Structure to design on (88 residues):
């Protein structure tokens, strides 16, 4: 597979090699792909965890265990007010 890099991508790779941390463009690209794979895996895991939390929240709401949004916001604002007062 041949890939055409944009000039700014080539400059980025060359800059990384110039730091002395990497010895070749292949090494920089390999690390970039590993980081991309890790990022994608972590994002996929976050999505799944979020879906599970939403499912739990839906069940809780159906059981009447939800909190009123305005009450939650007012509680947060009150906590901020008390924190500010304690710092003075």
């Amino acid at each position: 597979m041949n890939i055409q890099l944009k000039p700014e991508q080539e400059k980025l790779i060359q800059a990384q090699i110039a730091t002395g941390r990497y010895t070749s463009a292949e090494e920089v690209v390999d690390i970039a792909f590993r980081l991309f794979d890790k990022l994608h895996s972590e994002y996929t895991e976050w999505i799944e965890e979020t879906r599970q939390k939403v499912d739990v929240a839906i069940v809780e709401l159906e059981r009447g265990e939800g909190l009123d949004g305005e009450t939650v916001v007012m509680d947060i604002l009150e906590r901020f007010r008390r924190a500010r007062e304690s710092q003075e």
